[in-house]
Amino acid sequence: MNLINKMNPANKKVIMLVDDNMVNLKIGREILKEKYKVYSIPSAKIIFSLLASVRPDMILLDIEMPDMDGFEVIKRLKTIPEYADIPVIFVTARSGEHDEHEGLSLGAIDYIYKPFSPSLLLQRIENHMLMIDQNKQLKELNNNLEEKIQARTNQVYELQDAMLYTLAELIEFRDDVTGGHICRTKGYLELFIPAVMREEIFAEETKHWNVKNILQSSQLHDIGKIAISDTILNKPGKLTQEEFEIMKTHTTVGVEAINRIAQKVEANDFLKYAGLIAISHHEKWDGSGYPYGLAGEDIPLIGRIMAFADVYDALVSERPYKKPMSAEEARDIIVDGRGTHFDPRLVDVFDRVFDGLGRQGREIVRQNIRMIA
Ligand SMILES: [Fe+2]
């Protein structure tokens, strides 16, 4: 049982009645005491010390008081977040239109003139209490609903993430030279995409990006490898031209698979980005990439970004035919590809991700590699 309930065993709603006139306090108390737990407060200053232990459902506030007038009291209440929501009604002999306007504009929910009819005072208070209760219930309902929707959204996201990861892993299991590639590229993008967004160089496009969604989408970038034979996928040496042509089809096969899913569900960003990444992650800035030989900004931005993660990972990973490069060596190769393989402005961001974060940034990438590998 909380402090208020201990002091108010009948669980009546609590009203603080504030007036420097003792007769008014007594009359007010008589009117209200049957329905409400009433605190009669003769001085405005006492309100604040009492509020430390009592949370009223409403404050009935006189305006003209010697130590602090009612307008000052409400102003102070509104500046203290804990008390700002306590409903205040002015009950006052000041009947000027200007005073009433000021009282309401300071946040009072009503303005009642003295002398008042006891039954009307009670009725108005009761109406306000009812409205306040209904608002509270609506707010709680709304909060609960938001929490439930958020929880369900998280559940769907986690399920989707787990299924995608498993699907990506199944594809990766066949490809025994690139184990952990999907996880690692996702890790690099986790650093790189927010840096691109922060620098606002493609703000028009990136301002709507949901990084979490795009990271999920990136896991499907090589989904088309499902259609590539084991002989080609796991060939230890360099692919022949013919084999390479087949390997290239993992981009178009990938986007076709994603499009087939997209036809069965409502349009969503996740599939849109998955498709864009799958089809364009091997395009090159100078037009020498595949499958379409797109150049420059004709290559979707997300594909141009994915190219960094994909190539960087290939460079720093061990293959049967090559040793892994150091992060710094891989960075140098990517910087050399500025304007040929890679979008020049993105190379600058990539470089700044390393330089800006310095040792710490490189360590995060290394940790990602160690954790994920
Ligand atoms: Fe690929």
Number of domains: 2
CATH superfamily membership of the largest domain, which one?
Hypothetical protein af1432
Helix tally? 15
- Known CATH architecture of the largest domain: Orthogonal Bundle
Structural class category: alpha/beta
- Give the mean pLDDT: 87
- N-to-C CA distance: 54 Å
Principal-axis shape: elongated
Ligand inventory reads: fe (ii) ion
| Uncertain parts | 1-5, 356-361
- CATH class of the largest domain, named Mainly Alpha
Largest sheet: 5 strands, parallel
- How big a fraction of the residues is strand? 5-15%
* Order of helix and strand elements from N to C terminus: HEHEHEHEHEHHHHHHHHHH
Give helix % range: 55-70%
Strand adjacency order, main sheet:
2-1-3-4-5
CATH domain fold name of the largest domain: Hypothetical protein af1432
**What radius of gyration results from the CA coordinates?**
34 Å
Strands, count? 5
Description of the molecule:
- The chain is of the alpha/beta class and 373 residues long.
- It folds into two domains: 141 residues, 3-Layer(aba) Sandwich (Rossmann fold); 198 residues, Hypothetical protein af1432 (Orthogonal Bundle), CATH 1.10.3210.10.
- The protein is built from 15 helices and five strands.
- The chain has a five-stranded parallel β-sheet, sandwiched between helices.
- The two termini are 54 Å apart.
- The N terminus is likely disordered.
